[in-house]
Amino acid sequence: MPSETFDYIIVGAGSAGCTLANRLTANGKYSVCLLEAGGNGNSPVVKAPAALVLMMRSKINNWAYQTTPQVGLNGRRGYQPRGKCLGGSSAINAMLYVRGHRNDYDSWAAQGNEGWSYNDVLPYFIRSECNETYGHDSEFHGNAGPLNVVDLVCPSPLNKAFISSAQEQGLPHNPDYNGKEQHGCFQYQVTQKNGERWGANAAYLRPAMSRSNLKIITQAPFNKIIFNGQRAVGVSYFQGNQLHEVRARREVIVCAGAFGSPHLLMLSGIGPADTLQKHGIPVQKHLPGVGQNLQDHIDYTVAYKTNYNRDTFGVSLRGSARVAAGAAQWAAKREGIVTTPYAEAGAFVYSGEGLSAPDLQMVFVVAVVDDHGRKMHLGHGYSCHIEVLRPKSRGEVSLNSANPLDAPRIDPKFLSERDDLELLVKGAKRQSKILESAHFAKYQPELIYPVDWRDDAAIEADIRNRADTQYHPTSTCKMGPESDAMAVVDSTLKVRGIDGLRVVDASVMPSIIGGNTNAPTIMIAEKAADMILQSA
């Protein structure tokens, strides 16, 4: 079949793919083809921050994956929303700007990944960032990068109750949790600009769209990587029922995420040989680590109803009128309550003494959250997530079939390690003291799923009944030294044993970071762009 040839092919236009498409085309020397399975992601449902609730619980710009039945979750199938449009998951997420702890990156370097310590990656966080609050006077922040970071435009007064209560429980107020110290409570900063979502599409891709050396193909799910011997030379993809090909002179760069990247590698014959042979896929390269080492933040959410409906979102006549007025205000001025990501305040928490970094994260939401927003409740309320930041449980991504249009098999193995459950119980008890203090008394809260916080067994049962992902899957194509038999890529993100092929996204994290993963994924792509251009 006829095919076009480019210097670089990028598979996946998520946070990493958009970043690379911009950086690799900026000097005008190299041509790039960017393939994306979804659409253009340019609708008001993406731009309006509060509209995330419509995408998270549906298939609008969303793969809406399901996991295998999880033994640790009483046999329930988990829900895994992932972005399916230009911008990827940065088009459907809650826009929270979080980098993780410095120890996370020092741990990557200690695992044999030269050039990935905190001091090595900090310049790339700074380069990517335009922080309207801290960018001008902090050694930790940037003020000229593509990714705009702001304080909440219209925060709920309810955040004050959360922060005051958290302080009373011993947490320091720490507005710049991405600076010198992560520990403490705060209102989240968000990736927005002028009242709109500012994901990777807006930040990186749109400014590059007018460049003649960039071609973007949407509605183009991948089929497989094309090889000449042990060198990647192209990609085949679908448009409608037709297969098409594009060819790469220099590299194929896989940016399809923690689920999509190992899926594409395995469909192309790179992965555990027994898995490939089981599905009749010829083995191009036996790499047993492909799809292994899946790590994700297990999350437990508690929700409270309240009759005090002015500061929260909910299903009511007054709530509907408030949202309608807010939508008109946002349409006219890009201001008001439609700028909310719902997740507005939070904290990084130590579960005990002697820890080198917080091991729990709280995300306070000014609406009722039940089953990812898929179970609706009449009335108003608020919620709070508590998540284990460095879980010991390890899952895997594999194949359901050799059909590239079938979803990958996702098995996070949540709570397969007892320590994760015990830490989550401890975190839930700590969280309850914050949420049920006198600071919330005027809201007269009522716990939707009542739990006796003095009873560890009851908390454990509720966790197994309702916990699920916090949307941060990583590490399925882990970066590691040659001595690590499960490493898929080296410290330059090149796939081991294959020429002309890299993976650049959250799947390369050797271990999950302590926080949300969008900003770190963009950082990885910024650093990868430098490495690619230096080797060109």
UniProtKB/TrEMBL annotation:
Protein name, per record: GMC family oxidoreductase N-terminal domain-containing protein
PROSITE patterns per record: GMC_OXRED_1, GMC_OXRED_2
Domain of life: Bacteria
Source organism: Zhongshania aquimaris
PANTHER family registered for this protein in UniProt: CHOLINE DEHYDROGENASE, MITOCHONDRIAL (PTHR11552:SF147), GLUCOSE-METHANOL-CHOLINE GMC OXIDOREDUCTASE (PTHR11552)
Family, similarity comment: Belongs to the GMC oxidoreductase family.
Keywords per UniProt: FAD, Flavoprotein
Pfam families reported for this sequence: GMC_oxred_C, GMC_oxred_N
